[in-house]
Amino acid sequence: MGVAIVTGASRGLGAVIAKQLAQEGFAVAVNYGHDAAGAAKVVDAITSEGGRAAAFKFDVTNEDQIKSGVAAIVAALGPVDVIVNNAIGSHGPRPVEEQGWDYHLKQLEFCVKAPLQLLQAVVADWKARGVGVVINIGSEVVDIGNPEMSHYVGAKAAMIGLTRSWARELGPFGIRVNLVEPGFILVERHRDDSPEGIERYRKDVALGHMGEPADIANMVAFLASPRAKFITGQTYAVNGGRTLA
Question: Helix or strand or coil: residue 165?
Fold first, then answer.
C-alpha cells in the first residue's frame, strides 16, 4: 500500500489513524513533536501486530525540520505515498477582543503552513510517479461557527480552501486531496470535560450517540486506499449528522 505520514500521531486521533493505516497495509511514519514515549507506544502497537512503523520527531511548522524529517522517513521506510495532516496546537476559546494576530497565526501555522510545506517536500516525487494522497483533518467547527473560536475556525476553514485548490491543480498528476471533518470525539485531551457538556453535545447528534476515534480513522483509511481512487476535492463530516442543517 505504500508509506503514510501521520502528523501528531503520538496520541489521540493521530495515534488511532496511524494504527488503522497500518492495518490497511501502509508502512506508517508516526510523527510527533514532544511525546516520544507516546509515539513509541504507537509504533510498538503496530509492529507487534506485524505492521511496519517508525517514529519521527520533527516540528511540522518548521520548514527545515520537515525537509530533514521527510528525508529520514524515505530513508527508513521508502517513498511517501500519503500525508495525513492531523497535528494541531493549543486552541482554547478566547473572546474576539482578546485575540491578537499571533493567536490566529499559530493556528494557521498548523493548518496551512504545515500542510503546504509537507506537500512541497514530496510533490515533485509524486508528480513523477503519478501517485499521492493528502488527507487534511479539519473540524465541524467550520460549519457550526463556534463562538470565541474564530482563530481555530478560520484556520480550519482555510484547510478546505487548500483541499479544493490542490485537488484541481494536482488531479491531472494522479494526486488526490480530501478533507475529513471530525465531530467532538472523546480522546485523551477531553478526559476532564464535564459529563454535562458531553451530554449537551450528544443531544444534537442525529444518531444519538458520541463518535469514536475509529470512526474518523476508518474514513481516513478509506480515502487513503485505492477504493477512493475517483474521489478528490471533497469534505466529509464524520459527526453522526450533527451538521445536517
Answer: helix
106 touches 55 (CB < 8 A): no
For the stretch 130-177, pLDDT in tens is 999 999 999 999 999 999 999 999 999 999 999 999 999 999 999 999
**Hey, what's the cell of 152?**
481555530
Are the C-beta atoms of residues 95 and 28 closer than 8 Å to each other? no
As beta bridge partners, residue 4 has 28, 82
Residue type at position 117 = Q
Closest by Cα among 34, 49, 47, 38 to 13: 38
Closest CA to 54 of 27, 84, 16: 27
**Rounded (10°) CA dihedral 225, 226, 232, 237:** -40
Inter-residue contact 179 to 213 (CB < 8 Å): no
Q: Which three cell numbers stand for residue 208?
A: 444519538
Q: Can you list the domains of the chain with their CATH numbers?
A: 3-238 (3.40.50.720)
Closest listed residue to residue 112, CA positions, set 170, 168, 157: 157
Return the active site residues: 152
